[in-house]
Amino acid sequence: MFSLHVLLQQCVRRRCLLIGKGCHALAIHLGLATDTITCNILINLYTKCGMNDCARHVFDAMTFKSIVSWNTMIAGYTCNGDDLQALKLFSKMHQEGAQMSEFTLSSTLSACAAKFAAIECKQLHTIAIKLALDSNSFVATAVLDVYAKCNMINDACLVFEKISEKTAVTWSTFFSGLVQNGLHEDALRLFQSSQREGVQLTEFTLSAILSTCASLALMTEGMQLHAVIFKYGFHGNFFVASSLVDVYARCGQIEQAYLIFAGMKHKNVVLWNAMINSFTRHGNFFEAMILFEKMQQARISPNEVTYLSMLSMCAHAGLVEEARCYFSLLISDQIVEPNVLHYSCMVDVLGRSGKTDEALELIQLMPFEPTASMWGSLLGSCRKYRNVGLARLAAEELFKLEPENGGNHALLSNVYAASGSWEDAVLARKYLNDSGAKKDMGLSWINTKGKVHIFGCEQKEELFV
């Protein structure tokens, strides 16, 4: 039995599924098919190899399930992206009154984070408090992560403050949560405070804070972080380098961004995407297309973000035929599945170039429900090309999807005005005023003397904007 377990552990480490299956057959032959330790290793093997169904078959056949059995199966579901099954299995475990550990809760909470399951997270948080596991750094960090991803940042802050022993993962998770919720200044201040306290730096922490510098276009802070990255030897990390490229590009330093990109000996798809997106942002469309070709020559397969960047670039550059080529590549890609954002970009490309009828046809034929972004893009195109009939259709769909967004009413009014339909324009604006829908206030900001000042403009009463 010991030799069999050693061999199975070797299979787990090396992901040797074929030999592992042979060991499974031997275990059945030796009468060990229901042995708890043997089954636990087999479950671990199958989940690590992405064979959740085989793992569950072993799990269900067990006469006695230890806490390790439950934890391994739940973690397997979570790691393989089967989050719903992980939550269902935890619910079954709870109903059967099986013992739980911090690993049980942290794995299940990870499934909640992937599903943005706020209610389930609160229930698990309550269970953790009852079991006195809420102060455990693994559990508390997992709770913090779910709250932040579910836009419950105040709850996340409360959890963070109560963690007595904050690990580097805890800090990184909280930084990322603040950034995800748009609290960039808070993230930056907390990072500065953490460094004074001597908190350990990780590549994830640096990536999160660099994202803050990029979002606020903080050139000075970005350069200081660049120096810190070199000091601690993180400059060779893919994600840190990608974030640095983004910072310099957003601060207008596209040459410096490219130097960082070119200086990386090994590049992954994230880094290629960051540089392509940077060229697109600066209007260097030709360079972005060349980089896409070089990426393929380097045998780096584009992912959904790559295609999204290229289609977005074509929309802003007015490159219709090029967009068709990239979209065809995406449709024929055997690995990447087109999503609604890709279709939205293609609709934008067609609309901006005046092919509004073709854009509508694409919306009607695509395998997704049209989004507000698609209809909004189409409505905006109708203003330029004065397609009043299609504008009415797009506006009606927008009013259903975003009844509180007054900007859609104003845009429809502007379409009427552009085509000379003044009575309809006045009626559309009157409906806007009567409906109570509001336009989002325009904002601008400036960074001076180390502080970011945000300015807003009051909504004007003119008929057309």
The gist of it:
InterPro entries: E_motif, PPR_At4g14850-like_plant, PPR_rpt, TPR-like_helical_dom_sf. By secondary structure, the protein is an all-alpha fold.
How would you describe what is shown here?
The chain is an all-alpha fold and 465 residues long. It has 26 helices and 2 strands. It has helices spanning 2-14, 17-29, 36-48, 52-61, 67-79, 83-95, 102-115, 118-130, 137-149, 153-162, 168-180, 184-196, 203-216, 219-232, 238-250, 254-263, 269-281, 285-297, 304-317, 320-332, 340-352, 356-365, 372-385, 388-401, 406-418, 422-435, and strands at residues 443-448, 451-456. A two-stranded antiparallel sheet has the order 1-2. A hairpin with a 2-residue loop joins strand 1 and strand 2 (451-456). The longest helix is centred in the N-terminal third of the chain and has 14 residues, at 102-115. The termini are far apart. Mean pLDDT is 88; it is low at 459-465.
